[in-house]
Amino acid sequence: xxxxxxxxxxxxxxxxxxxxxxxxxxxxxxxxxxxxxxxxxxxxxxxxxxxxxxxxxxxxxxxxxxxxxxxxxxxxxxxxxxxxxxxxxxxxxxxxxxxxxxxxxxxxxxxxxxxxxxxxxxxxxxxxxxxxxxxxxxxxxxxxxxxxxxxxxxxxxxxxxxxxxxxxxxxxxxxxxxxxxxxxxxxxxxxxxxxxxxxxxxxxxxxxxxxxxxxxxxxxxxxxxxxxxxxxxxxxxxxxxxxxxxxxxxxxxxxxxxxxxxxxxxxxxxxxxxxxxxxxxxxxxxxxxxxxxxxxxxxxxxxxxxxxxxxxxxxxxxxxxxxxxxxxxxxxxxxxxxxxxxxxxxxxxxxxxxxxxxxxxxxxxxxxxxxxxxxxxxxxx
Length: 381
Ligand code: ADP
Ligand code: MG
Fold this sequence. Notes:
- By secondary structure, this protein is of the alpha+beta class.
- Helix 2 crosses helix 3 and helix 2 (116-126) packs parallel to helix 4 (160-172).
- The longest helix is centred in the middle third of the chain and has 18 residues, at 190-207.
- It has eight helices and 19 strands.
- Residues 1-23 have low confidence and may be disordered.
- It has helices at residues 66-74, 116-126, 131-144, 160-172, 190-207, 218-224, 242-247, 252-257; strands at 28-37, 40-50, 55-59, 81-86, 89-90, 102-104, 178-182, 210-215, 227-232, 235-240, 262-271, 276-280, 285-288, 298-303, 318-329, 333-340, 345-351, 364-369, 375-378.
- The radius of gyration is 25 Å and the shape is globular.
- The strands form four sheets. The protein has a six-stranded mixed beta sheet with strand order 6-7-8-3-9-10, sandwiched between helices. It has a five-stranded antiparallel beta sheet with strand order 13-12-11-14-19. A four-stranded antiparallel beta sheet has the order 2-1-4-5, with helices on one face.
- The N and C termini lie far apart (59 Å).
- It binds adenosine-5'-diphosphate (ADP) and magnesium ion.
- Residues 66-67, 214 line the site of magnesium ion.
């Protein structure tokens, strides 16, 4: 029988949760999930709508509830309350094998005594697929992850990256509606991890499989995700696109967790329609973005490292004078610690462009940054 295949380069555009309201969501839907271990709340009322074909990442510090959320979707953890839907079907009372989900764990579990080919065939044999169909599927899965020449190898005859690709191929070979990835790339070295991030994202787009990934690596999350759910203490504290999380974090926690930024303590001295004024601990007077912190309250001012400039400030910009006390060369960029006249530290990153003079250790310099890049958050959130 001929089955019409979509062209290999078809991109499945994820629909936003807003366009797929409520019960009609054909992706994954978590509805007020809570999980208690004894009296300890590992998850507190977590609700996430994941659109069909979307790549959603759970990002947060260790212990924030990422794995528990993932396990609640897969069915390896019973939830204390709440509901889980996959393709519109309620699954929270079903065992894992009835949920038909593809899973890749951090410590991948390829069968060491089976060849690559037989590892891939395994989930299909479990499902009673005919041998002829299995051979075809294994061949195309191997092509998908660029391992056609490795079908007969045993896992220990492959590199770490190749093993990870086999694990990925095995998770998607039975066309699951949902793919779960728990820290899938964390065992790989940096360079391989970055190239695997691209492969993973391309493969996920090509297949259009709804994907939930867990990571504690914010750069990885920004690189691969359509949206990111930032978790802290068993709660989703912000669910947004990578751009929004970086540009418009909704709390000090999120601003601090994503990126390596300057953080200055201060007090709000006035509020206007378009922003606020802050006096820092060291006595700098800064203009900042709107904040919900009241006048007189303690705040943290957050500025991204790449938003500083060494040239003279234009009239409305914030600026400071200081001395370079540390500089770190990273090839593509140089990062500086600048001690200001107010004895505060600015973390500044400058792209390493050719033919520009870079400041060096000991230089006294003026730094400026825009009010729109000056984020102000209540400190106690
Ligand atoms: P993450 O994956 O974000 O690091 P987890 O989801 O694994 O976090 O864990 C969330 C919280 O639940 C942690 O505080 C952890 O100690 C706790 N926890 C996880 N599993 C158990 C368990 N089986 N018994 C008791 N507490 C647990
Ligand atoms: Mg975990």
